[in-house]
Amino acid sequence: MSITILFVLAPIGAIIAWWLSQQRLTAKPWLEVGAIDDFPGTGASSLPAATIGLGVFLAVVSSLFALFISAYFMRMQVADWAQMPAPKVLWFNTGVLILSSVALQYAQVAARRGRMEGVGDGLIAGGLFAFTFLVGQFFAWQQLNAAGYFLATNPANAFFYLLTGLHGLHLLGGLVALVLTIDKVWRGFALAQVRLSVIRRHLSPVAELRRTKSMTDTVLADTGAAATRPSGWRGIAADWSSDQRAFKNVSWGKAMMWIFLLSDTFIFSCFLLSYMTVRMSTTVPWPNPSEVFALTIGGTTIPLILIAIMTFILISSSGTMAMAVNFGYRHDRVKSAALMLVTAAFGATFVGMQGFEWTKLIMEGVRPWGNPWGADQFGSSFFMITGFHGTHVTIGVIFLIIISRKVLRGDFDREARGFFTSRKGHYEIVEIMGLYWHFVDLVWVFIFALFYLW
Predict the structure, then answer these.
(1) Spacing of C-alpha 20 from chain mean position
(2) CA 420, 426, 430, 434 torsion-angle sign
(3) DSSP 31
(4) Overall pTM surpassing 0.70 (yes/no)
């Protein structure tokens, strides 16, 4: 069943990735004149940055929850699984959460219709229902603890607390954003100032003008006459079949990086699917990752503490890389170079901690052909997957240092001859490095979920 879930989610993820790439594939912000969000004539989306950012965040979160649920179904097949009873309060919590969604949908409809009172009522009701849900989840946890179902008692208990806790944290973050939006409504902000927070659409006159221009954008037909560009799925088919929008005006560097990342996705997918197949088919017990990757600190054994720190460092590096790309757009070469060096430092720290992890396991007897805890395939899977990913991070660190040095020296501004500096004022290489680095970070999320949490 877990394999089926992954194969169903893979096309969805591919479609999301393609859509996001289309939004910025042909954009060259460092060559544009005007507001930083305005990309005339590029065919890029007129959606506000907040909406696109939220879409990217939801895609990542969906992948994370899908991996957790997939690992849950796989772990259920092991003999030590003991299903815990579901407290009745969970049914009440589910109903309350549905009511919260209904209330927020009401606020969304009211915002589209320009009814400010309905917006406030819907937001307040949705927030109260969401808070009630969190309180109900806390009571459910209390009931289970009182009945003796603790986190470390059984893997089923651990998965329940993990999934519900992670979901509760996401809901709590949404509740904070909801409270901030309610505060704007309460203080009498105009509807246009809170509408984006409510319905995730920007309806200012500038955005409407850009959206209208994008919808009515035309391309030249073979006859030389202007033909209206189709919208929706017909527009997508027309773009790819006629090559009018798909790869026109795209630099070779960005296009080749996307092609490379696509091929690398297949390689990592093959590795992870092979790992899952080996683990599910072996008749020898698989080593427990919580015990294998545990560290003893101050006399206390803490499972996965090193892996958690490594993951935090690598995910944080995506933030510094994104800021480096942003300052590259603005031609602020000092800040862009500094943030790339910080990203490289994070990556080097990650590789160093991974080297420490390898050394520790090798000293404990782990080899590609065997280990002291269980199935022989554990060692080969570990060294192959983490080693291949670590190689990618190391290569990224080297290139980040090289590019940051060129940016800091002003090679892109002076059109200095050399590696990737043939075009004056072209900071596109910073964005290309960002694409590579974000891909490496995203792959680690899958490795972390499948190899360390399963």
Answers:
(1) 12
(2) negative
(3) G
(4) no
